[in-house]
């Protein structure tokens, strides 16, 4: 890894075609003299360094062979200015342009670069995380017939989504998340972009229903429509036709219906997020989820010339974990929280051996926590809070060595908590609060010793138990008790005159009564004939 400033001698490499200095610790202000002489340059990558100051794309204007440009910096003081000088013209036609996280045109109103109006060979364009403003640039899809990847997330584009997609059968990856897009998802999306592989429209202001045409995107593998104003039911085609779908995120909308029904046939699903909606029904009555591997197998995007890093957020009651880049190759999750799901938690969820995050909180689930959850060997986050679960917390869960977040609070659980060892020694009382019948550390409720089991019914077992007693202690205890009782009785008679007289009178009457009973048999015998 290199650091320091770029040596000026680089400007002598006039025959160089590929110039990649990405992912270093280089600093300073890049000078135009370092680039303008590299007339044979085809590929340049300046990303992930510590550059500062202003960088202008006009420095490349005479590089006629240039096809790949990737510029960015980890320094917030770095910015790319494309509109200066006014009227500059480019002599190149790019295939790949990456200008992410670079304060693009910050001092020119964060407008979309105007030179793109004259680019017609783009295959991949990433201008995400720049706060760009204005209407959604639908002309980018129209002008570049070979455009495969378009990433414009985390900007401030506006306009109606329903009028934003021109037909382009080559577009495979579309991300316009975190913008200000409104309107409906186009009903003809499968006609405009029939071969979409990845579609991310999350965190906008999209309303209406999910069109059934999304179920006709036959090669779709990743769909994120979360954090919008979508309503209605999930189209059956989305749940049955998308046989390649690996990631489905519909969180934070107003969707309803029994989405987890027998119509659910997404056998390749890796990550499912349906939280914060109004879904009803039981957790699952379909075998398709359990037949899936719940394991993400995705390395390089099959259509991309560069590595696309996507990000998935797994949320529990106490922690949000963002997974990005290479870790997504082994990440999977199931989030059904904040709905109206009912019934028991199916034991089959314990078959999802590769799952890393499971969130069923804030529903109306009943019944016990499945013991088979102990088979979730890779689970890192398990949230079952705010339901009506009953029974014990299975002691078998202490086998989950990867478990970092565990929450069963606010249920109706009872009994002794699992032994505090392995990962369970790290969980605080907040993980169990709202269950008054739970006992044991870390709670303050101490467990009462359980009563002994039923006694043996046969006489031999009973005799054996008596023979096992300490008879000397037993007789000694009885004698001591008898002596104390008699001593106390004598003391009462000595102190209380009334009781003493009453006692002597009682003894005298008893003696007289016994004498009568003793003479009665003889008198009765003499009376017989």
From TrEMBL:
Membrane topology: Single-pass membrane protein
Pfam families with a match to the protein in the record: LRR_1, LRR_8
UniProt keyword terms in alphabetical order: Cell membrane, Glycoprotein, Leucine-rich repeat, Membrane, Repeat, Signal, Transmembrane, Transmembrane helix
Primary residence: membrane
GO annotation, biological process: defense response; response to other organism
Keyword Disulfide bond in annotation: no
Recorded family membership: Belongs to the RLP family.
Name of the protein in its database record: Leucine-rich repeat-containing N-terminal plant-type domain-containing protein
Naturally occurring in which organism (per UniProt): Mikania micrantha (bitter vine)
């Amino acid at each position: 890894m290199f650091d320091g400033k770029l040596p000026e001698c680089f400007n002598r490499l006039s025959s160089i075609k590929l110039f990649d200095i990405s992912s270093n610790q280089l600093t300073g202000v890049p000078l135009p003299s370092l680039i303008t002489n590299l007339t044979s340059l085809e590929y340049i990558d300046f990303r992930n360094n510590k550059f500062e100051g202003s960088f202008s794309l006009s420095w490349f204007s005479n590089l006629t062979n240039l096809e790949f440009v990737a510029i960015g910096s980890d320094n917030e003081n770095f910015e790319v200015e494309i509109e200066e000088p006014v009227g500059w013209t480019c002599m190149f036609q790019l295939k790949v342009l990456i200008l992410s996280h670079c304060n693009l045109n910050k001092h020119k109103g964060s407008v979309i670069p105007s030179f793109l109006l004259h680019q017609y060979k783009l295959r991949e364009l990433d201008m995400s995380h720049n706060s760009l403003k204005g209407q959604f640039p639908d002309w980018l899809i129209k002008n570049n017939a070979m455009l495969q990847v378009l990433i414009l997330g985390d900007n401030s584009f506006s306009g109606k989504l329903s009028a934003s997609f021109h037909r382009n059968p080559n577009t495979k990856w579309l991300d316009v998340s975190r913008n200000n897009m409104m309107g409906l998802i186009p009903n003809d999306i499968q006609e405009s972009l029939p071969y979409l592989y990845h579609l991310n429209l999350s965190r906008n202001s999209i309303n209406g229903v999910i069109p059934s045409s999304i179920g006709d995107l036959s090669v779709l593998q990743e769909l994120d429509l979360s954090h919008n104003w979508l309503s209605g039911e999930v189209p059956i085609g989305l749940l049955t036709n998308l046989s390649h779908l690996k990631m489905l995120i519909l969180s934070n909308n107003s969707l309803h219906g029994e989405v987890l029904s027998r119509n659910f046939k997404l056998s390749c699903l890796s990550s499912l997020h349906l939280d914060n909606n109004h879904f009803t029904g039981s957790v699952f009555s379909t075998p398709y989820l359990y037949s899936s591997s719940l394991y993400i197998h995705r390395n390089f995007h099959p259509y991309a010339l560069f590595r696309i890093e996507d990000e998935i957020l797994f949320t529990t009651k106490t922690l949000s974990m963002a997974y990005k880049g290479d870790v997504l190759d082994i990440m999977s999750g199931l989030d059904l929280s904040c709905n109206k799901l009912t019934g028991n938690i199916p034991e089959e969820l314990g078959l999802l051996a590769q799952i890393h995050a499971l969130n069923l909180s804030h529903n109306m689930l009943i019944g016990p926590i499945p013991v088979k959850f102990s088979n979730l060997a890779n689970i890192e986050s398990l949230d079952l809070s705010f339901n009506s679960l009953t029974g014990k917390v299975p002691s078998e869960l202490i086998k989950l060595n990867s478990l970092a977040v565990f929450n069963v609070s606010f249920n109706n659980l009872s009994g002794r908590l699992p032994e505090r060892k392995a990962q369970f020694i790290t969980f605080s009382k907040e993980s169990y609060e709202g269950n008054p019948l739970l006992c044991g550390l870390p709670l303050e409720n101490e467990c009462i010793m359980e009563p002994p089991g039923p006694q043996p019914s046969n006489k031999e077992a009973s005799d054996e138990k008596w023979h096992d007693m300490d008879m000397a202690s037993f007789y000694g205890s009885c004698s001591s008790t008898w002596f104390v009782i008699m001593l106390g009785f004598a003391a009462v008679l000595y102190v209380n005159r009334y009781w003493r007289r009453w006692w002597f009178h009682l003894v005298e009457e008893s003696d007289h009564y016994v004498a009568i009973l003793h003479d009665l048999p003889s008198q009765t015998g003499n009376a017989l004939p």
